[in-house]
From TrEMBL:
Its EC number is 2.7.11.1. It comes from Paenibacillus harenae. InterPro entries: Anti-sigma-factor_SerPK, HATPase_C_sf, HATPase_dom. The lineage of its organism: Bacteria, Bacillati, Bacillota, Bacilli, Bacillales. One of its GO terms (molecular function) is protein serine/threonine kinase activity. This is Serine/threonine-protein kinase RsbW. Keywords: Kinase, Serine/threonine-protein kinase, Transferase. SUPFAM superfamilies: ATPase domain of HSP90 chaperone/DNA topoisomerase II/histidine kinase (SSF55874). Pfam families: HATPase_c_2. It comes from the Bacteria.
Length: 149
């Protein structure tokens, strides 16, 4: 991996059919950086969840919007910022909801909020900022070569 930081930014319409563009860019960058197949899959799932949340929840029905994605790469790993300027949500309340999911049977759990749970499970660090729109920052450290074997 390069020792100097590099980044790429892409802005897509907040529509489901454009999420693949983000996934393809992410895959190309992370694969060249040396992430393992398993790490690549984790990255793709987490980013897809964050982008899908923006598509489904940020903008009202039929209201146009965009999703800004920035991928930063350095010798430590990768950092992906997914940002929208649409409707935000109460992150603390959502976290409490998926913590309470652990106390219920799977049949009693409602859909929604599990995307955040997946992001936390798959990434090394997840930050969510909801002060103006929503920004999700996903961080994954690259494994050492012996861990990737």
């Amino acid at each position: 991996m390069n020792t100097t930081p590099s980044s790429i930014a892409v802005t897509i319409p907040a529509e489901a059919q454009y999420i693949d563009i983000v996934r393809l860019a992410l895959y190309g960058i992370a694969e060249k950086a040396g992430f393992s197949f398993e790490q690549l899959e984790d990255l793709k799932v987490a980013v897809t969840e964050a982008c899908t949340n923006a598509v489904l929840h940020a903008y009202g029905s039929g209201q146009p919007g965009v999703i800004d994605v920035r991928i930063d790469l350095d010798n430590q790993g990768i950092r992906i910022c997914i940002k929208d300027d649409g409707n935000s949500f109460n992150y603390d309340h959502t976290v409490q909801q998926f913590v309470s999911h652990h106390l219920k049977s799977l049949n009693d759990v409602k859909a929604g909020g599990l995307g955040l749970f997946l992001m936390h499970a798959l990434m090394d660090n997840v930050e969510v900022r909801t002060d103006r729109g929503t920004e999700v920052i996903l961080t994954k450290r690259i494994g050492r070569k012996e861990e990737m074997a």
